[in-house]
Amino acid sequence: VDTLVPVLGDQLSLGLSALQAAGRARTVVLMAEVMSEASYVGHHKQKIAFIFSAMRHFAIALRKAGWRVDYITLEDPDNTGSLAGEVQRAAFRHGCSRILATKPGEWRVLEDMTGWGALTGCETVLLEDTRFLCPLDEFAAWAEGRKQLRMEYFYREMRRKTGLLMEGDEPAGGRWNFDAENRKPAEGSLFLPRPFRAAPDAVTKEVLALVAQRFAQNFGRLEGFAYGVTAQDAQAALDWFLHEALPSFGDYQDAMLKGEAWLYHSVLSPYLNTGLLDPLEVCRRVEAEWRAGRVPLNSAEGYIRQIIGWREYVRGIYWLKMPGYTEENALAADRPLPGFYWTGETDMRCLREAITQTRDTAYAHHIQRLMVTGNFAMLAGVNPREVHEWYLAVYIDAFEWVEAPNTIGMSQFADGGLLGSKPYAAGGNYINRMSDYCGSCRYDVKQRTGRDACPLNALYWDFLVRNGDRLRGNPRLAQVFRTYDKMGDEAKQDLHRQAAQFLKAL
Ligand code: FAD
Ligand code: DLZ
Ligand code: SF4
Q: Which InterPro entries match (predicted)?
């Protein structure tokens, strides 16, 4: 053996660039469960269980494919507790002269990796992660010299590049984007598919016991864990989605229903982000469903846009703006994260629903993340760094490259509008339109002030005015500020008093 290939918990792809470059003959692959990765934020129990079990299954798959693998479990008495420590031990154990690694998804780990050469005395080669459609230098070239980095234009480039949903040079159906058709609210009577579930096997059961014991204090419920943990499971989850949920995905993409965590969402992000599914393959399968006449274009286009558009775009932004991006705080928000984000104990039904569901499943769909927990935190002026750490901890699919731009940029407007041209701020009205939450809330969504008023209503106006210096000049907010300016002085004062009282009690 002369080459060491460390494979991280979100690099579980047989086609990983470092594996491709190494060749099996003189290589040992290193995989390690380490406390530093398991505790750099207080991950949800199901997230740790998912990663550890998927890692253990991937080691089995590697061995089957003929690789020599050193797998260090968390319980190994010699485990040093850090990636660098394990790389150093393995390089010494095997007398390696070379480390080949695929670059990681987080800045923090990249910094660590760049020190591995000095630490071990090995020649260290860091390769690009080729599991994305847009290489980072290509993204940087696209961004160069543009005043605004609009996702929509980036997305069109990706459509042309991949040929997905293209008819020659034209977008299928004559339009690039069918979002206008994707905003149907949900009704309680909708027929909802049962979500995909994988029964835990012996390996997963062992990991569940380990997590229950070693991470007992972490956020989240472990019971009911049913995520897939292998590439085969991920394929089954994809098949489930294509047949059961994709046809209605577009229509109900933004809808929310009590007690319904999944609706018509794919819940494929955990598999995409750890490498158990390939994004381009997923998109080709979605396109094929549309071409076969089994799903409408608004669903296929909406879905493909999330993956080749948003997913690639936020990754590009992350690497363009790091380090520093996770420290941004354009609105100078400094309130600590309310304690109920960890318990769900609040009378606001929308927040209780999103948070308890997150606790139970480590999942919430995009509109819950953006317009319920994200919106509230922004309106209340919560410190974006704390909000960022919460999202990074509680969701099964959370890795910083994708979580940070969504939280800091899209949801908190803390990057001052790089990602979105205006803050995603909303009062209770929006939530009432898109969900059935308000009907069973202790607050009245129609009221702005008074004991029973929906807190989001006063907070919404208070947020805009509080940040007036920054937001008043925004043409997309001109109409809202005009509405505010037309309110009587007393009404304005009532709103701000209402908001202040609520925030004080928070
Ligand atoms: P679907 O609704 O079925 O969407 C399909 C796929 O498109 C997803 O699996 C995902 O890969 C991709 N996608 C959709 N929206 C986005 C987006 N905005 N950015 C990047 N990819 C997207 N996504 C993560 O993967 N990890 C995160 O840590 C994460 N944190 C978020 C934090 C906030 C505050 C917000 C507003 C969004 C976040 N997202 C994150 C994006 C999005 O909410 C999730 O990708 C989605 O909810 C995953 O569930 P799904 O697979 O059922 O998605
Ligand atoms: C998230 C995670 C966890 C909980 N544990 C490990 C681990 O023990 N070993 C490992 O290699 N990776 C783990 N991961 C995933 C890493 O945090 C992830 O690879 C980096 O953050 C880069 O995206
Ligand atoms: Fe949320 Fe307000 Fe509706 Fe209650 S009334 S569920 S707080 S939006």
A: Crypto/Photolyase_FAD-like_sf, PhrB-like, Rossmann-like_a/b/a_fold, UV-DNA_repair_photolyase
Which ligand is in closest contact with the Cα of 392?
1
Give the span between the Cα atoms of 367 and 354, in whole angstroms: 10
Nearest Cα residue to atom 3 of ligand 2: 38
In the 8-state DSSP scheme, what is residue 50? Answer: H
Give, to the nearest 10 degrees, the angle between helix 151-162 and helix 312-321.
Answer: 120
pLDDT grade for 179, boundaries at 50, 70 and 90 = confident
**Mean of pLDDT values over 376-404:** 98
Ligand lying closest to the C-alpha of residue 299: 1
CA distance 102 to 17: 6
414 lines ligand 1 (CB under 6 A): no
Query: Which pTM value belongs to this model?
Result: 0.98
In this structure, are 74 and 110 located in the same domain? yes
430 lines ligand 3 (CB under 6 A): no
300: Cβ below 6 Å to ligand 1? no
Residue nearest to atom 3 of ligand 3 (CA): 438
Average confidence score pLDDT of the chain? 96
Write down the residue that tokens 């394929």 correspond to. 235
Range of the domain at 399: 339-505
Domain boundary residue, one of 127, 147, 162: 127
User: How far is the C-alpha of 36 from the C-alpha of 234, rounded, in Å?
Assistant: 27
Instruction: Based on the fold, state whether residues 152 and 289 are members of the same structural domain.
Output: yes
Q: Which residues contact 258 (CB under 8 A, 6 or more apart)?
A: 353, 435, 436, 437, 440
Chain segment 215-226, per-residue pLDDT in tens: 999 999 999 999
Within 13 Å and on the Cβ side, how many CA atoms surround 120?
A: 31
Model confidence pLDDT, tens digit, residues 64-83:
999 999 999 999 999 999 99
- Residues paired with 167 in a beta bridge: 170
For residue 18, the Cα-to-chain-centroid distance in whole angstroms is: 25
For ligand 1, atom 42: residue with the closest CA: 366
With pLDDT > 70 as the criterion, what percentage of the chain qualifies?
99
Distance 246 CA to ligand 1 centre (A): 16
Tell me, what amino acid is at 489?
D
* Burial (0-12, 13-18, 19+ Cβ within 10 Å), 423: buried
Query: How many C-beta neighbours within 10 Å does residue 337 have?
Result: 16
CATH number of the domain that residue 304 is part of: 1.25.40.80
